[in-house]
Each structure stands twice: as structure tokens, then as C-alpha cells.
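Hello,

I think I submitted the DLL job twice by accident. Can you confirm which output corresponds to this input? Input:
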Amino acid sequence: MKDLTPRKEDLNPIEIASRDQIAALQLERMKWSLAHAYENVPFYKASFDKAGVHPDDLQSLADLAKFPFTVKQDLRDNYPFGMFAIPREQVKRIHASSGTTGQPTVVGYSENDLKNWGEVVGRSLRASGLCPGDILHNAYGYGLFTGGLGIHLGADSLGLTTVPVSGGMTQRQVRLIEDFKPKGITVTPSYALSILDEYAAQGLDPRDSSLEVGIFGAEPWTNAMRLEIEAAFDMHAVDIYGLSEVMGPGVANECVETKDGLHIWEDHFYPEIINPTTGEVVADDEQGELVFTSLTKEAFPIIRYRTRDLTRLLPGTARSMRRMEKITGRSDDMIILRGVNVFPTQIEEQLMTVKGLAPHFQIELSKPDRMDQLTVLCEAAQDCAGEDARKAAAGDLAHKIKATVGISVKVLIADPGGVERSQGKAVRIIDNRPKS
Ligand code: DLL
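Support: Only one job matched these inputs. Its output is below.
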């Protein structure tokens, strides 16, 4: 793999500013953001008043802990435009969640917000090793989802040549990569695996492709998956994080030269980690739930938003800005099986170490008797044909999960291609337990 480290002189100076400079900018912006939300969004006025706090109470960054949290339900209660802080006519763009699990959540962007979004996504793409003039194959979905259009804004801002393919039509994805020879690809890690399968189906070697870096996010993925994808494509694989409520992709990104967690673009998004049960802020290196406060957003300021994502904060390395560790999972995706907390990423980590298994999987929860049962649905790799080889792989995986996660699971191995493929975010958990 080529060294793609960006030149220091190309970085935005704030990325490598001193911690004091960053903190001073954050405090000034946080004061503005709290006042802006309080004065312009009735929800925030009511929520701050109820908690007995006023934007003037913020004298230091630590004072943010006095302010109330915002949760997804608050956004749903104010559907569709109740959380906007500027007149609707000045909102230049709307995005929304798919709403598969309830009322969709709607977010909006002013002209300036779009400019800032482009800047942070451009910064993320540069941190990933792309330079002005490079070709980017953008396979995140275009539409209400922030992935496609968010990356597109950043690619424009950095000066890339964007191929806006969006998700789906996997044969065409391969064809375009082969014909246009992009240096980078932006896609969910699970869809990258589908593209990889398609390479095999077409008898092409992905290691011979032009790709030098893949920028993967929108769903959790492990370092074990990174190694698998890097080896398969002979390219770097870096992690990009974000959520629509805070902006979209580009809230944090790994640096290609270190790949040691994601630098949070702290001049726009202020992170805290809290204990999800008590709501107390915990020390930076402790695991907990990630909470964000926007510092510059005009149309849709967001104060202390509980992301449900679990991680911890770490000091800066390749940049001065703090890092977040790769996300373990969302608290909503945590399975509690016979008292043990399990995340799909823990299953993925083990699956990747078993010879004979392809990297695709789903987790099925059922209740055949009075006990919950977890079944890992995975599939045989092309070279794992015989019944005996499959049995051995299933046994190996069940054993490894028992030894590391501490739970007994059933493993079912389908034929190659037998696990449902993702074209965007993978569906990892199928809950077939009877609704009580
Ligand atoms: O998924 C934005 C995005 C698009 C990020 C493209 C990166 C690339 P939402 O649809 O609002 O926005 O979903 C946000 O996805 O709270 C996490 O649970 C999860 N997520 C996003 N990025 C990562 C990541 C986009 N790198 C939710 N690792 C978040 C783990 C991620 N989970």
C-alpha cells in the first residue's frame, strides 16, 4: 500500500493548533450555539428553563454538563421543522432518517452549514489520503440519507472528481471502478464486501484495481474487517463517522498515516462521554455513550445530543483534535443474552478469525423454549466445500465466541451467497423472539 500521508501545509491550521487555541475557539462558539438554540428554538428554551439553566451560565467548557440532554424522541416530537432555528425559507437542504423504526427525524442546513459540512468532509477525505484532482467513487446512497450527498459536498470542497454512483447495481459498481480508475471509494463496509464478491463473480482481481483507499462508515466495523478489506483490495481502509442529527458523515475521521481511531473535528462538534445510566460525564479515557453539541450549526443547532453510540475519547495523535475509539456498537444494538451484553462487532471479530467462513453474517434471536437463543447465520467461503469442513468451521466459531464473549451460540453455515447482502447499512440483527 502506498504512503498517502497528506502534507502538513495542506491541512486546515486548526487541525494542528494547540489545545489552548482549540479550547478557546470551542468556548466562544459554544456560547454562541447555546444562545442561538435558546433564543430561536422553543424546544430548547423550554428544556433549559425546565432544568433551571440559561446560556449565560456557561463560563467554561465543563459548564456544558449543567445543560439538559437532547434525545431522538425530542426530534420526533418536533417533526418536521420544529427544531429549526432559522426561518424555513433560509433552510437550503433537508435530510431525514428513513423512519423505519418510527417517525422519521428531519434535519436542515443553512447555506453556511452546507459550507461547513463540505469543509469537514473535505478534511476527512484529505485525512484519508485523497488530494485535489483525485477520482472518488462515491457508493453511499444519495437521497434523504446524508451519506451520498454529504460525501459529495466534501469531495467538491476538496476538489476531487466525483463519480456519484450511489448504492446498488453492484455489477455496474465494478465496471465503473475498472473503467474510471478511481483512487478512493466511499461506501459502507458491508456493501464493500458485496462489491468484493462481484469482483470474484466477474473473475477479476480487486488487488489489481486502481483503488488506494476506502473510506468506510455509517455502521460499526472492526479492525479485523479492516485487515480483511485491506488485504482483499490492496488498499488502505479508514473509518469515517457521523450522524444526521449532528451533521452527517464527517464528524470524525481516521488519519490514514495512523489508523488509530477517529479524530473528531472538534472546532465544529463538541464531544462528551457520559455514563448511559446516570448521565454523568466520565473521564476522557472511559467507555460510555457519546454525546455531541454542535458549535457552528445555524439551521439545526443540537445541544448535548445522546447518540447511543458507545466509545471512549483519546488524546490527539496525527492531529491535535481528540480521537474517538472505533465504535463498539449502539446501545440499541446491544443484545443481552442470558445476562451477558453482546455486540454484533464482537461476533464479527471472531468470525473473521475462522478459516473457511466468508465475512458476511447476521444474528438471529429466537426463543425456542424459555431461554433466548442466538444463532449466527454465516456462510462458507468459496474454498470451504465439504460437509466436514463446514462443521469444523461452525464448531470453531462457536468455541471462539464462547471463549471470548462468554455465551453459547448456534452457528448455521449457508452456501456461498446465502447470507442477505447489504447495499447500504447492513441489517445485523433479526429478532424472531415472540413479542411479549
Ligand atoms: O450514517 C452518516 C454517515 C454516512 C456516516 C456515511 C459515515 C459515512 P445516520 O444514518 O444518521 O448517519 O446514522 C448514524 O450510524 O449514530 C452510528 O450508530 C452509525 N455510524 C455512523 N458511522 C459509523 C462508524 C450516517 N464509522 C449512526 N462506525 C450513528 C460505527 C457508525 N457506526
